[in-house]
UniProtKB/TrEMBL annotation:
This is 3-phytase. Residues 1-24 form the signal peptide. Pfam families: Phytase (PF02333). It comes from Nonomuraea polychroma. InterPro entries: 6-blade_b-propeller_TolB-like (IPR011042), B-propeller_Phytase (IPR003431).
Amino acid sequence: MRPLFATVLLLLTPLSPGVATVTAAAETPPLYDDEAGGHANGDDPAIWVHPTRPGKSVVIATAKEGGLYAYSLSGAQLQHVPAQPPPGPGHEPGRLNNVDLVHRFRLSTGAKVDLAVASDRGRDHLRVYAVDPAKAAAGQPPLTDVTDPAVPFVFNSTQEEVDAAETVYGLAVHGTQVLVSRRHETRLGLLDLVAAPGGKVTYRKVRTLDLPSSFALPDGSTWAPCLEPGELPQAEGMVVDRGVLYAAQEDVGIWRLRADLTGRPVLMDRVKEYGRQDTYDPATEECVPGQDRGFGGEHLAADAEGLTVYETGRDSGYLLASSQGDDTFAVYDRAGRNTYLGQFRVGPGDRADGAEASDGAMATSAPLGHAYPEGLLVVHDGADSPPDGDREVTNFKFVDWRKVARSFK
């Protein structure tokens, strides 16, 4: 039975006024988004829980053109899997964006394996990696690429279309199905994972659904987020919980809809900038803020990003959302109408700096050995410290869930 504080920890207000602050117990080595660093730019983590030795669980994280990384629970690097090269001259290389986990997938060989599935926004593919528990327990590289060489494009038909960059973006797993979003579009897609010959894995499309791109406001006007010409408000952060998909449309808010992409999506919460008619300035390629007419939400500062769930029981726990615009995480009740419960940030501490401009996040309530007996929250840090000149530096912070618990009554 989970201790009582894990169930009620977020039902009351923070101990101190304002936003609660927690600190990380560990962090991963810095990633550098330049040629010397292999264009590694951290984005989204997943926590693979070892079935028999939870202290040997592995954090798997994307680094865009830098590929995929596997880390121990201390933050030490276990493996680096490079992204795919360009398919030919002038084409885009692989860029792994988001990652999630499939458990006990049956390969064509009959073996059942856990899979890490990543969206490759450079190639418009899914990449699939088998996780080896024995190698993870031994501290060895645990990932093996089992992607079928003949996997199809997710959203496009030709390589020329892929090179236009409207490709697979966000990703969340639901059983052996994968929910994906499309970059610069409002489209979501549902894919079935399929066992392919030789122990490989491919996929086939089931259906798609388009989220709205413009919105009717209470004053009778219509609003659309300010974006670069030709772009629509995209979704990236996604998580599936008990058959429900939560999707963070970055400049709009968090949607709740059926994970089979049927039925009508419901806008669960809005970003603070919702309804503010900003104006695009082609000279600066930036949006100039307009008047705030009070139609926005109170808890999310655009972009709304990574979503994850912390379970305390079948119908209890919390939905967490990265509020990238103010470097905080909003917490909602996992049950019912997803009532807002509180806010916290990951600040600098003795073992790691804080997390800013956070994209992806993942939490687990599984006990992970003596270091994380009540589970773990891993968040992307978009501005790792100390800085290194003009280099863009990112990494991932590991937060003991007990610290999140203790930051609230």
